[in-house]
Amino acid sequence: MGLALLGQSPVALAQEPVQPQPVQPQPVQPQPVQPQPVQPQPVQPQPVESAQPESAQPSVESPASPPSSEPARARPRTPPKPAVVAKAEAGAKGSRGPDRGTRPRYHHAPIDDQLWRELVPSTVLMQLTTGQRVCVYVTEVTSDEVFYEGVEGGRKHVKRSAITALHENSWECDEKSIVPKKEWARAGVAAGLALAGINTALATTYTAVEDMAPYQYALFGIALTLAPPPMVWAAGRSAAWDLRVSGIGWARWAGWGFYAVSVAGLGMWVVGDLGQVDALSYRGNALWPAAAGLVSTVLFSVNALRARKELQAVRARDAEPPDRAAKTGVQQLGFSVAPMRMGARTHGFSFGVSGRF
Q1: Cα–Cα distance between 343 and 82 in angstroms, integer?
Q2: CA–CA dist 187, 304 (Å, integer)
Q3: What is the mean pLDDT of residues 202-227?
Q4: Which of 131, 181, 207, 288 has the fewest Cβ atoms within 10 angstroms?
Q5: Quick one: pLDDT at residue 294?
Q6: Paired residues of 339 in beta bridges
Q7: Cis amide leading into 20 (omega within 30)
Q8: Could you read off the pLDDT of 177-190 as tens digits, one per residue?
Q9: DSSP letters for 169-226
Q10: Is the pTM of this model over 0.70?
Q11: What is the β-pairing status of strands 163-168 and 133-142?
């Protein structure tokens, strides 16, 4: 066909129509789009005022404080607050804790938390390691301290380890009681024995001197016969308000017996000599009541001095720290004697000493 076309004239080629060839569309394959990674732009932080305390390290951007060459010190740890064991409510001044009666009670250290809960709030007598005995109103107790209000007012506190003893319902802290708050046994014994001795001397003089009028002896004899024994008894009682002090019971009973005899004899003297009753008026009727009063005063004095000694012993025990008080009983010595027998015969005795040396 190509040769035929070459043999034709150009006119004939121009007259022959050209048939267009259909174009077949080529399918377009979509190309996958690869996502381009986005590079994050660095954000410059804006300077913000630090909320740290002054002890923190200064910022590098601050030109006023150059960096220190010393290493940073660690912040000290704040010790934990002591736990509250018991605390009185606000406005509870003068109130008492759980009802524990009015009988005095004595507690030696260490004092546990349960007892403190029962005592708060209340007024107690505290014995301290310094030897002081103070009446306080306890308001709060922690694991380490005791907070209280003193007699002069104001909130105070003391370490629990400094308290060696507590007294509930102590007579020393009873403001409404007329009982003296101090022990005066020794002074009372001295005064009572002196007055009873003077009375005995006056009665002896009245008996020996026949011209002495009864009223001359009555001016002082009646008072000196009646006063000394009860005064010495009261002096001994001032040391025995502590229930741990007992004194000598038989001495007190015997003292009251002789005092009753003395009072009866004095009454007979008043009726016989002052009342001029001849049946009761005789020589020596004033001497034996005075002597009975002197014996009564001596017996009350023995009881008072013994009570004072016991009171000093219990107060010294109250002031002892717990560790020393626990060793007190161990260091005491004991003595024993036992017969040495062989069969039915005794061949001697054995003597032993026990204790901690």
Answers
A1: 69
A2: 10
A3: 88
A4: 131
A5: 96
A6: 349
A7: no
A8: 666 678 899 999 99
A9: T-GGG-TT--S-SS--HHHHHHHHHHHHHHHHHHHHHHHH-TT--HHHHHHHHHHHHH
A10: no
A11: unpaired
